[in-house]
Amino acid sequence: MSQSVSSPSSHQDEFWLLANNASVSLGAHFREIALGLFLTHLNASPKAYAWYFLMGSIPSLFTTYIYQKIRRRYSSKSVMVFTYVIRLLAAITLWQVSHFTQAIAVLFVFAASRSLYQIAEAPYLTKTDNGISTGRLISWLRQTESLIDLIGPLLAGWVLMLCGYRQGFLINAVFYLIGLAFIARLSKISPTKGEHLTSQVRSARRIEMPLFVIWVANFLVWIGNVMSMAYLFHILHKGPLSYGLIVTLWGGSGIFSGQVLRRLSYTKLSQFMALWFGLLAISWFIISQDIGYALFCVATVLIGFSWWMIQDSLTTIVLTSRSGHSAALSQARLQAFGEMGSFLGMLVIVLLPSRILHIQTIFQHLALWALVLAGGLCIYAVIIHKSDHCRIHDTK
Known about the structure:
This protein is mainly alpha-helical and 396 residues long. The chain has a single domain, classed as Growth Hormone, Chain: A (Up-down Bundle), CATH 1.20.1250. It has helices at 8-42, 46-57, 63-70, 76-96, 100-125, 131-163, 167-183, 204-235, 240-252, 254-263, 273-287, 293-319, 324-351, 359-395. This is MFS transporter.
């Protein structure tokens, strides 16, 4: 049996996870801003950003298999430590590379280790064996990251403007060292008897819905992110501080999404999914109208809020009633489907000829597809509500 929610070990692990999340999130801003400028310097084309996101999507397609192979020999904590060591070395390597292909190869290693970390972290998110506590911890992690996002990008943009953007990779490595110290304080989780049964609690239909939604959401959102970077750099002609503000608004919107997530009951999460896609549609339509920087910032907040709500709601739905390695494999499956969507989205941008990559037109198409999906999810929510009502009535 998993530890109870009130156990000292559970509370301590939550604290170390939050501290680690804050530290690594701050360091990530130095790396991401440095990467945005570095890739623009090496290859000033929307395809360069697409290659960046593409390399981030591929690893999740096979990290589930890797985790299944190593979980019998190594604890979740050991895997998390290993991935931090790899990312620390990768950050130092990025500081030294000077060619686009080298940078893309290192980013692939970064993405693989990050994907493996997220899978290994899942048992700690479900350690309390309590669906409400799982959602609460996920919302706290989101808000911790978002609080850092309020100051991190602007701080990183200002520091890198003074010392050169390539130094951002070294600063990122330092924060991974700090994160390693926090991860080392986590308790060790051993597999629990019968945990394989917990994955069968909900019906297959409700398990498959999050997989489909995360697949489509990643496909749309990451195409939108690539086009947003292109819009910012090539149409609005903004630099490090403006890019830092955009990242701040995107990440900081998670403060509001975390508050909303804690106030929604587990049974309401899927019913509100259509609303978040509706907000995405509105935001992308606004950007498609050739707007200025101020309105672009407003749209970024709406996109960020909607994306965090979609991602964290689906994670809570999938992880609730799971524990240990069952939770890790469920998280891996959700992550793999999400990255498949990202992979296909980036593949579309990479393969399309540059002459037809009209930014405003692509945003219009994204808005249309998000609106269609919102309508489909509304119908799904009505069907599920009626199905639940009939099932409750039949059991009386």
